[in-house]
Amino acid sequence: MTTSGNPPTTLRELLDSGWRPRTVKEELRSNLLARLGEGEDVFPGVVGYEETVLPAVENAILAGQDLVFLGERGQAKTRMARLLVGLLDPEIPVVAGGELNDDPTAPVSAGARAVVAEQGLETPIAWLPRDRRYGEKLATPDITIADLIGEVDPVRVAEGRYLSDELTIHYGLIPRCNRGIFAINELPDLAERIQVGLLNILEERDVQIRGFTVRLALDLFVVASANPEDYTSRGRIITPLKDRLGSQIRTHYPRTLDHEIAIVRQEQHRFPPDEGIPAVVMPAFMEDLIAELTHLARRSPEISQRSGVSVRVSVANAEVLQAAALKRAIRLGEPAGAPRVSDLGAVMASTAGKVELESVGEDVPEERVVERLITKALYTAFGRRVDTDELDEIVDAFDAGLVLETGDRIPSREYVRWMREIPGMPEAVRRLGVDPSAGEPATGALVASAVEFVLEGLHLQRRLNKDRAPGGVVYRR
Questions:
Q1: Angle between the N-to-C axes of helices 443-460 and 284-299, in degrees from 0 to 180, rounded to the nearest 10
Q2: If you average pLDDT over residues 235-239, what whole number do you get?
Q3: 11-250: what fold?
Q4: Mean of the pLDDT values across residues 339-365?
Q5: Can you tell me the distance from the alpha carbon of 214 to that of 380, in angstroms, rounded to the nearest whole number?
Q6: Per-residue pLDDT tens over the stretch 169-194
Q7: Strands annotated E in 19-102
Q8: Rounded distance between C-alpha atoms, residue 49 and residue 67, angstroms
Q9: Mean predicted lDDT score pLDDT of the chain
Q10: Contact indicator for 339, 324 with CB cutoff of 8 Å
Q11: pLDDT value at 364 more than 90
Q12: pLDDT digits (tens, 9 = 90+) for 410-422
C-alpha cells in the first residue's frame, strides 16, 4: 500500500517508508477482516448468497485457501472471482521494468534480479494498481502449457542469447499474474495433461519451463470455476488437482422470486434517457411473472436441469418485454409504455435459445414447452396476487354480455375507459399495485397492463372464455 504524500520511487525510499511485503493471501485476509469489522459489503452486487455461498468464500480466504466455484451456468462464479480484486491493496510496489510484478525486496524474474543487483537501493520503483493484478483464462481443450506457464522465445534466441539463459523465456499468463489473482474458468475443459502442469503452482508455488532448472517462487491466489456435470461429461478435474484446491464452494440459482427480481433489476441493460422517446415502466406483477417463468423452467421435467436455466433468461425476458412496450408506445404515440400480457409472445425468442430440452419421450417443439411454462407462470403469479372471489363483479359484467378485444394495438386510453366502466375493475387494478388516479404519464400504460393481467388471469381460472382474433384476443362469458 502506498504511503501518505508522494509514493516512494526507489527501493531506498520504500524501505525508509516502513513498507513491509506481504503475500496475496495475507492481503486478502487482512482486507477482508477490515471490511467485516466495518460492516461493509464484501461482494457488492451478488444477490441471494448471503447465507450460503459468501460465508464459505470468506472462510476460504481467511484460511488462506485457493478455491473452486462449482455450479451451473449463470450463477455468478466469474463475477465473484473478479470481485476478489476489491480485497487487494489499492497499489503495491514493483521493480520498474520487471516482467513478473516483482517484489523489490525479493524479485523472481531474471530481469528484475539483474536490476536490483546492479542498482541496489537505487532500484526504481513503480506502483501497480489492484485492477492490473487479476488474470483470467477460459479453459479450452487447445490451451498449451506455453500459454499458461511459458515457452522459449525463438526471437530472443535469434538475438544471440543461449538456450540456457533464463532471459530467453517468454512467460505465460500464470507467471505474469505473480502477486495477484489468477482465475481459470471451466477448469474441466482443460486437458488433463495441462492440469498436471498446475499441480506445482497450487502446492509448491513454483513453475518449471521446458525442462530448464528455472524455478519461480510465485505468489498467487488461484480461483477456478466448473460445472458439476463437467466431472463426468465434457471433462473432469483430475483428482490430485482437486485435492490441491483448498475449498470447493457450491453455487446455486436464486432461491426466491425476490432475489430473482433483484438480480434482473440490477443486470438488465439500461439505455440513457432520450428526449422524445417514451419511458417504459415495468409493473411489479409482470416482474413476478418473469421470475416465476424462470423458476418453473428450473423445475420442469421437459427442460434439462444438467445445463441449468440461467438468470440471464429472466434478464433477457425483461428486456424484450420492455422493448415490445416501447415499440407500442411509439407506434401509438403514447408518453409511456408498460409490458402487457399480449406482449408475452416476445419472450419466446429470449427463452427458447437459453434452455435445453430433455430428449426423452415425444419430441415436443421448444415453442410449445415455453408456451406451457408461460401459461403456468401467469396462472401462479395471478393466484398469488389476486383472490378470484373478489372479482365476481367483473365476471358478472361478462355474464351480462360484455365482450372485450385486447391486443398490442389497443391504446392505453381504451383500457382506462374499460376500467372505469366495468364494476370491480378499479379495485382489481389497485390490488395489483397500480393507482388509476395517479395522473402520471405512465398511469395509462400501467392500467392497460393491469387490465390485461386480470382478464387473462380470469380466463386461466376458468371464469372467462378467450378466442383468438386477428389483432389480439377476445374475452367473453
A1: 40
A2: 81
A3: Rossmann fold (3.40.50)
A4: 84
A5: 64
A6: 778 899 899 999 999 999 988 888 88
A7: 67-70, 91-95
A8: 16
A9: 89
A10: yes
A11: no
A12: 999 999 999 999 9
Q: Which helix (H) or strand (E) holds 185?
A: strand 180-185
**10 phi, psi to nearest 5 deg:** -130, 165
Residue ranges of the domains in the chain? 11-250, 257-476
Between helices 284-299 and 311-332, what is the axis angle to 10°? 140
Stated pTM of the model = 0.86
The residue type found at 264 is V
Q: How far apart, in whole angstroms, are the C-alpha atoms of residue 344 and residue 327? A: 14
Cα separation of 294 and 308, whole Å? 10
Share of the chain above pLDDT 70, in %: 91
C-alpha cell at 199: 499441480
Residues in the chain: 477
Show the cell assigned to 183: 482465475
At 97 the pLDDT is 86
- Residue 415 — φ and ψ, nearest 5°? -65, -40
Exposed e or buried b for every residue in 203-221, given b needs 16+ CB within 10 A? eeeebebeeeebebebbbb
Give the pLDDT confidence score for residue 231 in this predicted structure. Answer: 46
